[in-house]
Specification:
Elements: E1 2-4, H1 6-15, E2 19-25, H2 35-46, E3 50-56, H3 57-62, H4 72-89, E4 97-101, H5 109-119, H6 124-130, H7 143-158, E5 163-167, H8 171-180, E6 190-194, H9 220-229, H10 241-254, E7 257-259, E8 269-271, H11 274-282, H12 288-309, H13 313-322, E9 351-362, E10 365-374, E11 381-385, H14 393-396, E12 400-404, E13 410-412, E14 415-417, E15 420-421, E16 423-425, E17 433-435, E18 447-450, H15 468-473, E19 476-478, E20 484-486, E21 489-493, E22 496-497, E23 507-508
Parallel strand pairs: 2-3, 2-5, 3-4, 5-6
Antiparallel strand pairs: 1-6, 7-8, 9-10, 9-12, 9-18, 10-11, 12-15, 13-14, 16-17, 16-23, 18-21, 19-20, 20-21, 21-22
Helix pairs in contact: 4-12, 4-13, 5-7, 6-7, 6-8, 7-8, 9-12, 10-12
Length: 509
């Protein structure tokens, strides 16, 4: 999509083949959008380039500890196996590639000294700006996140390459490297960028948004389910995640795409140019259902060899060890003093976007509302809330709220409540209360999760004696920019952050 340093690139190619590297931080599980850089790596090899793949394990830890230290080795091994399986599935010969781990050289005396040298000339502003699109952004950033761009710049020198390849989200790090490497006496490198693949929901495909991505090891029924839910409105080519996936992933790999359909609807049609497919979809010649079914078939052909490889007992064990399910913590044995404490993590909470369908005063309690709230289930839930003194009835009617759905149902003055509307509360008197607001555009039933805890399954029902919610709720806060947080990690939906209107620094309950 973009090249920085094209003149230098052409000068190198006049003399010899290009030496280039692509790096990936070993954090969340790679998804199908990784086929975009894999296809470009295949192109580089066909062009005669010397290609190095860097498994940036140390970067994964530095980026707000996305990969805990104790899981770093396991996740790096997982990445090595899954990336190699991807490359093999599209016919890339592994013997022509060089594979390197960051910790193979990043802990050396020379590299460490260069990190210190670089830190003496880089400003905090430039380091933060460089990582803005890549490093996880939090209200109180760790120093490790500021080191991240510098290490990525130094990798170009220590891998002895002419160029670095990455997504356009890396652009600020690339320009950072071009600015600062010469200050250490090292050459400025060429940078090549590929587009970022939009997710199935229309936003960026992200490991943190379950519905936006298809994992490489997703089962066929999971692929079908996710594609069925994907945004693909008839005739609409804007923010169409399915069309974008065909454009950025399937066409570059196969140079064509076949729309499969019954004879009565025109039979199968092969497209050799994406523009022609987009035109037919815009004119509603191609139906969304046929498009989704065709993507499902093409994608499963790519994923089948990867699934087969990871079906071995050894790789199944590695996958489970590298990405343990936080909701499946072993319960402590009764009577054992030194047993492991229960794993109390936000993913155990079933929090969803809800839409208030009706609001009535409780027949036997003046301070309580009885609401009917749609949370994406066949029937709305009945919820009793103590909001009469704080929120007028008309402000609740038809609004979107954030609902905790897996509390044990309990009767409140004779009416059973099947959930809790989460609200921000001010500190001190007079007390103010505001229901939390999901991002604009959310739908009833969408999951709300805490940043970094997207993967776990919520408990079916929270046991009152365990006090899981109470333990987590003690660390719920509203940030200075009115974002709901747990331990400074944002509450999110696939469309963005959950917030409140004005109660900065408040509690949440």
């Amino acid at each position: 999509q973009e090249v920085l340093g094209e003149d230098k690139l052409m000068a190198i190619l006049k003399e010899r083949e290009l030496k280039i590297y692509w790096g990936t931080a070993t954090t969340g599980k790679p998804h199908v959008a990784y086929f975009v850089p894999m296809s470009k790596i295949a192109d580089f090899l066909k062009a005669g380039c010397e290609v190095t793949i860097l498994f940036a394990d140390l970067h994964a830890y530095l980026d707000n500890m996305k990969a805990p230290w104790e899981l770093l080795e396991l996740r790096t091994r997982y990445y090595e196996n899954v990336i190699k399986a991807m490359l093999e599935s599209i016919g890339v010969p592994l013997e022509k590639l060089k594979f390197v781990r960051g910790t193979d050289y990043q802990l050396s005396k020379e590299y460490t000294l260069d990190v210190y040298r670089l830190s003496s000339v880089v400003t905090q502003h430039d380091a933060k700006k460089a990582g803005a699109e890549v490093v996880k952004q939090v209200e109180h950033p760790l120093l490790s996140g500021l080191l991240y761009p510098g290490l990525q710049a130094l990798d170009e020198e220590y891998l002895k390459v002419d160029a670095q390849f990455g997504g356009v989200d890396q652009r600020k790090i690339f320009t950072f490297a071009e600015k600062y490497l010469p200050s250490l006496g090292y050459a400025k490198r060429v940078h090549l960028m590929n587009p970022m693949v939009p997710g199935l929901t229309g936003s960026k495909m992200s490991s943190s948004e379950e519905d936006s991505k298809i994992d490489l090891l997703d089962r066929k029924e999971d692929v079908k389910k996710k594609l069925k839910k994907a945004f693909c409105e008839p005739g609409n080519v804007e923010n169409n995640g399915v069309l974008s996936f065909i454009k950025h992933v399937l066409f570059p790999l196969k140079s064509e795409f076949v729309v499969l359909r019954e004879e009565k609807w025109g039979g199968n049609k092969t497209y050799t140019a994406y523009e022609a497919l987009e035109k037919d979809f815009a004119e509603q010649v191609v139906h969304p259902g046929d498009l989704k079914n065709s993507v499902e078939v093409a994608l499963n052909k790519l994923l089948d060899p990867i699934r087969e490889k990871f079906n071995s007992p050894e790789l199944k064990k590695l996958t489970n060890a590298a990405y343990p399910n936080p909701s499946k913590a072993k319960p402590a044995e009764k009577g054992t003093k030194n047993s492991e404490p229960e794993n109390v993590v936000p993913s155990r909470l079933d929090i969803r976007v809800g839409k208030v369908i009706s609001v009535e005063k409780h027949p036997d309690a003046d301070s309580l509302y009885v609401e009917k709230i749609d949370v994406g289930e066949p029937e709305p839930r009945t919820v009793v809330s103590g909001l009469v003194q704080f929120v007028p009835k008309e402000q609740l009617q038809d609004r979107l709220v954030v609902l905790l759905c897996n509390l044990k149902p309990q009767k409140m003055r004779g009416v059973e409540s099947q959930g809790m509307v989460l609200c921000a509360s001010s500190v001190g008197e007079p007390r103010q209360v505001e229901p939390l607001d999901p991002p604009t555009g959310c739908c009833a039933g969408e999951r709300v999760y805490v940043e970094g805890y997207e993967g776990g399954e919520p408990d079916d029902e929270l046991k009152p004696k365990k006090k899981v919610f109470e333990k987590l709720q003690a660390d719920f806060r509203v940030s200075e920019d009115c974002v709901a947080q747990w331990k400074q990690r944002n509450f999110l939906t696939k469309l963005g952050r959950v917030s409140c209107k004005s109660l900065k620094g408040g509690s949440i309950s």
